Amino acid sequence: MRFQCAPFSSQVKLPIDDILPVLLESIRTNPNVLLHAPTGAGKTTRVPLALLDIIPSGSGRIIVLEPRRLAAVSAARWMARTLDEEAGQMVGYSIRFDSRVSSSTRIEVVTEGILTRRIQNDPTLEGVAMVIFDEFHERSIHADLGLALCRDVQQQVRPDLKLLVMSATLDIHPLSIILDDAPVISSTGRSFPVEEIYLDEYGGGKLPQRMLAAVIRALNESEGDILAFLPGSGEIRSCAGLLADAGIAGRNIEVHQLYGDLPFAEQQIAIESSTRRKIVLATSIAETSLTIEGVRVVIDSGMSRRMRFDPASGMNRLVTVRESRASAEQRKGRAGRLAPGVCYRLFSRHTLSAMTPHMPPEILEADLSPLLLELAAWGTTEPAELTWLDPPPETSILTARELLQDLAALDSEGRMTALGTAMSRLPLHPRLSRLLLRAEEICCTRLACDLAALLSERDIIRRSAVGRHADDGYHDISERIDIFNTWRKSGLIVPIADISALKAVERSAAQLRRLVSASADLCGSAGASRLLLAAYPDRVAKLRDPGGRRYLLANGRGACIATALIKAEQLIVAVTVDSAEQGDGVIRQWMPIEEDLLRNELSQRIELRDVIIWEPREGRVIAAREEYIGAVCLASKPFVPDPEKLLPVVMQAVRASELGLLSRNEAFLQLQARVMLLQRTFPGDGWPDYSDQALVESLEIWLKPALSGARNSGQLAAVNCSAALFSLLEYQRRQSLEELVPTHFVVPSGSRIRLDYCEGELPVLAVKLQELFGLADTPTIAGGRVAVLLHLLSPAGRPIQITRDLNGFWNGAYHQVKKELRGAILNIPGRMTP
After folding, report:
1. Which domains does the chain have, with CATH numbers?
2. What pLDDT does residue 39 have?
């Protein structure tokens, strides 16, 4: 029997109604279908109700996945109202810590984490006939994971499971391919004309002041409610304060705030219709899915806030970025849902054209440790085993796997441990799941719930409009706990505290207490430190310089604290360490840790290392036995290492100095030059390469035997490098060396004159001219292949001529030299000229 909607459903015709017959037929005949429908088409509320006509009640529920809690509840209530029912009957919803379903529920709207948990608890999705992914173009990591898991269920055990992916702006073609060429059904949107006004230079000043000016202008120039998009809650609260100061809310005008951390009831009030004109200051939460009654004006700041993951630091951080063109169009479209509207943009046309078409999928930017833990619970150690629209980056996977192994959630093979299984059952980030489980071990669950709430919700320390903390890192986590407890018990709010954040933390803590059945704490004053060490073992930090404010974290990253007045030697750093321009992070939330506690809690992570290094300033080897947690050294004591462990360090020091630590005396240099001359002269005869570069590269061959016991620069300087180099030559080579490149040459006078091989390419014979009388031609070496370079000297030893042609000298220049010497040579008894 055809399902009939109550009369309310037919009051307004929506564009999606025109393609419903085609869509239903495609779903009837295909396991997977894609629906492309712009914002305002009516897909979120019309399609699930229409599917009741083709999904028999006995085949299971229709699960509708919504990316946000407010959108999920609003969609469920709207569809229930269409049927003249309350949510929880035919149409229900399940979100974190809240559920409205019954045995008669056939359409269940859920948020993304709920779907993942449902699949993990029931891998066959028994009782589910169809899963609808709404607003898939937002590409949240949970939606990508949910689709990958549903696809795996469909392929492995549930070929009857139907999947419908609905999107407003996504390029559908790649998605169609991974869903076995699923058919694509397209619908038009319902949108009235929207006038665009660019105010890129309007008002000047910071963003909240510019938004205030734009709101005042829109109030004077237009009709209907105003939806103003700002990047985050800090800017929203600042702008709301400016509007209050300007007296805007007192002129029959309501001002509402709308962001994710806001109490759910306040979020609902912001989207409901009102008899007074409304100004809604919202984050990107209002871009899609939600319909805010009465909006005719949109003011777009052009900015949004996104969570990004830095694999190098292993940390998530919120960054304010320029929105995409798709988001800009989505925001503009909000002004044309009900009637013609106007969109004021706080940026230029040029800026709009320069925006990226779409924001990158979250899976490419986010912390993947929750994803990897879910996959391990699913039995998958490698994400590549599942089908992804965009595969998760390998570097982010490696970082996530390291963290989960640090938390003992995964073993060395990437498989789930018993502790990891328990962690995966909690709807929290793995760090906070580990924190709560550790709290159960040490009887500290109430404190753990408060601490997890403080770490997961917005910081209770107020921020200014530009996002800087009022305390700038001066207050540690224990002080935040005290501020929170004081407010909870007495209602007293310290000046730096944020009341809305305090309320959000209290709500979250209460929900967590119900989740873990928190009891009285018995853990003592060190409980918070012990819990933080369980959750953040990779973020132990140690002071780098006494009296300074720079710390080294266990993950190898540097970080600095706001003031050197903090004298803690060791810290545990919580989730917010933001990148700084100078390269180090800025520590925002932290707690001092005593070394004894650190050793007790992380004893299994303490690694003993023998560190042997060459200290250039002292010119010696330094050996220390050190205890480490990651990159952080807890203690260091000197020790005497075995000689064989010294040798590689000394060798590396010599190599780094490019032989500068050695005493390369005259004998070494002459031997080196003689062998190099033979290598050049006889290139095919196998003479070794004795160049500096070759000797540096072959230290282990020629120098290592001579370095035994050397551990300082004085001992290195005493090493007989010439003997070490000579020992490389075989006996026959040594004989050839002396024959081909002798160290000395006997001249006609009978003197044995040293040959200098280091002066240049040719060996130099520096000899007094009179000692060569009787030698007609230039002496040669290397079997006659190389003529020596003669440096002819006067009887007093002064240079008078340099030549390679002795015969030419006798026949030419000698006569002039003879005159200049004024007969000194001719008067030598017993000598004859040539």
Report:
1. 7-186 (3.40.50.300), 194-363 (3.40.50.300), 666-739 (no CATH), 742-820 (no CATH)
2. 77
